[in-house]
Amino acid sequence: MANIQREQLNRGVVAVRQDAGHVIVSWRTLYTDKKGEPFDIYRNGVKLNRQPLTTGGTFYVDDSPLATDATYEIRGGGKNGTYTLAAGAPEGYLPIKLQKPEGGISPDGREYTYSANDASVGDVDGDGQYEIILKWSPSNEHDNAHSGFTGNTLFDCYRLDGTRLWRIDMGKNIRSGAHYVPFVVYDFDGDGRAELMVKTADGTIDGKGNAIGDAKADWREEIGKAMANFDKNREAAKKEQAEMEQRRKEWEQMRRDGRRPQRAQRGPRGRRQPRQRRDPGYNEWKAGRILSGPEYITVFNGLTGEAMDSQPYIPERGNVSDWGDDRGNRSERYLATMGYFDGKRASAAFCRGYYGRTVIAAWDWDGRKLTNRWTFDTNDSRWKDYAGQGNHNVRVADVDGDGCDEIIYGSMAVDNDGTGLYTTGMGHGDAMHLTAFDPTTDRLQLWDCHENRRDGSDLRDAATGKVIFQIKSREDVGRCMAADIDPTNPGLEMWSSDSHGIRNIKGELVTPKRTSEEEKADKAKSEEDDTALFLRGMRLPTNFAVWWDGDLLREMLDHNRVSKYEWETGGMKLIKEFEGCTFNNGTKSNPCLSADIVGDWREEVLVRTTDSGELRLYVSPIPTDYRINCLMEDIPYRISVATENVGYNQPPHTGFYLGPDKSVTDFLK
Fold this sequence. Notes:
The chain is mostly beta strands.
């Protein structure tokens, strides 16, 4: 894939105050740099280094920083770069002020607020620096399995200095929730500026204030009856809200008093008391779902937010029950991704369904018109065995070495031309990790977990589907993780919620197997402080991983903290906590984004403050001895960052082995 259309990134210089006496300066190594590329660093025009920096990481510590504004400049490699650090800059991160949307009241009378949720990055203006595309989620967003009205999903675009470029309102005909609004940000037409692609509907308002389709249409189920009963339901909602607030205060007081709050009101024999339900005047089972109406795929200008073209979404919804149920828990399951399906230019792929019928449509954008490249449909008799194999996420890479990307759709794979590549028949799962696990080969493998209480988790060859090893399970294995965390074993380590410990690339346990009694005892300690269990290694994180501390092992990123596995003891070492911030999506506990966004090859962590008034881009303050190309220049890694927001968020992975098992010279520039 040497001749593919690439992003043209700049030097990515960033300066962050570490403490009162130190400022860290970090910058990118680019694929155009020669090995041992010399760099010089300047502050307000004064050179700081005595000799050109030709070895070690692209990382510098200014131990005599100025108390005033300071502009740091990196010179070298034919691409210089600057960053101005404000005098009052906070320690450890770049602050990005947000314009938080006002909340509202939904047709059922309930109030909702907004919080910053998933994010992606793209160079929308062609200057070589990433901007942030941020999704705002309402507090009443819903999973597809649940009915209920939701507030509108919104998208903002921000520069790293906090300048907002535009806001897109998805409108009332796009339901809000983790599985409804996957989006892809990338430069699809090769003009050097990124676009946003996302599914839209009647009433979506672009960044210029223009409506897509019929701005007045309202396709929400039971909307007429809900509005007719709005006043009654509004009063009932106020009462419910007051009761919930009182209950919250009581719980807080009980915790302060050292008492254990009761999870539910119990009757005299310990049984749950039935909830008193009110009649809202409409069918609550259907309310708020969107099961009809036109749907589109739209490409938006990344700089202005203007809708440039919309085409009918493929596939159309049709008869909802044909997807497996009559309430949209099958038909309204969406995924999205991108790939170089022709080996040269990037295409988007938007998907519908994974529990049953599955359709994937690839789209090309040439700067003028969206064109459907191909469509894969399990209703085609050739691909009927591929139905019901999708995950809550999707991975893309050139797995068979033909120079073009393939789509790994859970337990099956689709070739770059839209034909089936293979299916394992292991069905739906919640997590998967695609990368080079084995340092002795360039082949990509996939670590996948399954929900069917049969297939557990497996490592397979990503090109053929051949299983390398499998850990059967009678449980729904809802989480799995893969990262190189132990230098005493070759390659990556893997574990899942039912792998009985950490496995190596041969499937062998590299931690002592826990007996069923020990595992039951651990679960019984669920009321114990989570941090204490975590630090003792009894709860190895399965949500995210991050390259943070400067060596070639990967750290865990989970629940507002970065931690390192201590292979000698089996415990965890806490490295960083993101104070005042909140991770997203409940137990999924993922940041808004984690990726190599600025600076050297390590990954930054983009998180929201608890009140969603600010994004914070945290940069590692730890020096590194390794000079490695910007990870975003690795195509599989870049694609996995573009799809990080999709469904159940997964951490990005490189398309090559990155870890301590190869010679250091394999990574150095």
